[in-house]
Design a protein that fits this description.
Blueprint lengths: L1 H16 L18 H4 L4 H10 L1 H4 L14 H15 L10 H17 L8
Length: 122
């Protein structure tokens, strides 16, 4: 029984200590002229959909849920956002070549039609 108590105590200590290791947050106060909504004329409703459904993972402006401060959820979310921005960053869309922009727009449409994006949050 003493061994189980020691193991549980070690787990609790590790769980508390990892809370002090917070990943950097994806927040930029600077707006860029390369943002997709600045480059293309689109209805406000489409802009709102992009900002509410896509920008958290595919821009430099993430709105974080409360649980991001609890590790390891913060680490998992930081990894997911990093991967999402590597695939497509709406804030840097204008820096992509015209061919890449067109490819990304087709991929966005396909992902929406297939239901793979936006991800469903629990």
């Amino acid at each position: 029984m003493r061994l189980i108590k020691k193991i549980l105590l070690a787990i609790v200590i590790v769980a508390v200590l990892i809370q002090f290791i917070q990943p950097a947050h994806n927040k930029s106060v600077q707006e860029t002229q390369m943002e997709i909504t600045k480059l293309f004329s689109m209805p406000v409703t489409v802009q709102n959909i992009l900002k509410n459904a896509c920008y958290d993972c595919h821009s430099n402006h993430t709105r974080y849920p409360w649980y991001v401060h609890i590790q390891p959820m913060g680490w998992l979310m930081a990894k997911h956002i990093k991967e999402g921005k590597e695939e497509l960053n709406f804030d840097e869309f204008g820096s992509y070549s015209l061919r890449r922009q067109e490819s990304k727009l087709h991929s966005i449409a396909s992902s929406i039609e297939e239901g793979t994006m936006p991800l469903q949050i629990l």
